[in-house]
Amino acid sequence: NAGVTQTPKFQVLKTGQSMTLQCAQDMNHNSMYWYRQDPGMGLRLIYYSASEGTTDKGEVPNGYNVSRLNKREFSLRLESAAPSQTSVYFCASSRGPDEKLFFGSGTQLSVL
Amino acid sequence: DAKTTQPNSMESNEEEPVHLPCNHSTISGTDYIHWYRQLPSQGPEYVIHGLTSNVNNRMASLAIAEDRKSSTLILHRATLRDAAVYYCIPDNNAGNMLTFGGGTRLMVKP
Question: Torsion angle of alpha carbons B68, B64, B36, B88, nearest 10°?
Answer without folding.
Answer: 40
